[in-house]
Amino acid sequence: AKSDAHIQAGWSNSAYVASKIGVSALAGIHQSMFNVDSRKDIAVNAVHPGYVDTDMTNHKGPLTPDEGAVAPVYCALLPENTEIKGKYIWYDMTLSNW
């Protein structure tokens, strides 16, 4: 960290960003564990609500709180036995694999 090699490699210097990457990757790991479970109706995904205009972003985010809620609500309402499992879901409902 002292040499800033991580920054030169394109990684963030933010502990917050690193923690979000870890939590998002953990969703995929948990889904892998549930994939061998007899209960097939368990879906674990990570969702990114976007850069939302809130106190946390000092009101710099371009999305309204209602717009930021779209992807989390989408995840909460996925149908039973959905094929969308272990994904990273962006604010616009684009899916990414981990």
Automatic annotation (TrEMBL):
<dbReference type="GO" id="GO:0004090">
    <property type="term" value="F:carbonyl reductase (NADPH) activity"/>
</dbReference>
<dbReference type="Pfam" id="PF00106">
    <property type="entry name" value="adh_short"/>
</dbReference>
<keyword id="KW-0521">NADP</keyword>
<keyword id="KW-0560">Oxidoreductase</keyword>
<protein>
    <submittedName>
        <fullName>Carbonyl reductase [NADPH] 1</fullName>
    </submittedName>
</protein>
<comment type="similarity">
    <text>Belongs to the short-chain dehydrogenases/reductases (SDR) family.</text>
</comment>
<dbReference type="InterPro" id="IPR002347">
    <property type="entry name" value="SDR_fam"/>
</dbReference>
<dbReference type="InterPro" id="IPR036291">
    <property type="entry name" value="NAD(P)-bd_dom_sf"/>
</dbReference>
